[in-house]
Amino acid sequence: MKIAIGIEYHGAYFQGWQSQPNHRGVQDALEAAIAEVAGEAVRLHAAGRTDTGVHALMQVAHFETTAIRPQQAWVRGTNAHLPPWVRVLWAYGVSDDFHARFSARARSYQYVLYNHAVAPASQHGRVGWYHRPLAADAMQQAIQGLIGEHDFSAFRASECQASSPIRTMHDATVSQQGRYIIFSFRANAFLQHQIRNMVGALIYVGQGKLDVPAFSALLQQKDRTLSPPTFMPDGLYFTGVTYDEHWQLPVCEACWD
């Protein structure tokens, strides 16, 4: 059987999604817990890999097993063997041709930034922080230039192993809710550190260090060394994956409204 699962996790407790030699990856925790339910080792394949400190409200992964279990057993049984900072939200049997990564049509992320002179205590590790006032309107104007198909080399990590820097950004917005500024992105796929690098550059726009034409020029220059530094991971959330309807997955994007 092939089982797809929806997953939520607090990234501060892990060294990213991918399995690690010290077993500190989200993948390690989930594979060990699912194996307890299945009675055999399993291998998870995720829709996208998140870095250390990055959270997920709706990650999607799949695994194959010979074990026959009720769908709720894959949820409740697995969660019984997990630490409280990671949870399986749903499980659903899928056909053999489904793949959590390759069947995905788009991925959605949001970056939640706390914009205040004093860093937050209760939200420590769960939101990004910048201490000076930012102009959300200017950042919203600049972010519109990211929509469409582009070479995103300007916002790509130097160690990124993707074969191509070309990605299609379907949506990109900036909104403000009190002291929180929320950056929302939906694309067919993302490069390593791409969102954190884009947010770092947008914050320069919000400060007035870059104007909108200068931000657009960064994208066109395709040179990571000319762009602002990578921003902290704390406020980054993987919020959803888009699949064709025929898969009938119970996937709903968990967004900040």
TrEMBL record:
Keywords: Isomerase, tRNA processing. Residues 9-102, 142-244 form the Pseudouridine synthase I TruA alpha/beta domain. Gene3D superfamilies: Pseudouridine synthase I, catalytic domain, C-terminal subdomain (3.30.70.660), Pseudouridine synthase I, catalytic domain, N-terminal subdomain (3.30.70.580). Its EC number is 5.4.99.12. The keyword Signal does not apply. It is an enzyme of class 5 (isomerase). GO terms for molecular function: RNA binding; tRNA pseudouridine(38-40) synthase activity. The active site is at residue 51. Substrate binds at residue 109. GO terms for biological process: tRNA pseudouridine synthesis. It catalyses: uridine(38/39/40) in tRNA = pseudouridine(38/39/40) in tRNA. Homodimer. HAMAP family: TruA. Formation of pseudouridine at positions 38, 39 and 40 in the anticodon stem and loop of transfer RNAs. Belongs to the tRNA pseudouridine synthase TruA family. This is tRNA pseudouridine synthase A. It comes from Methylophilus rhizosphaerae. The gene is truA.
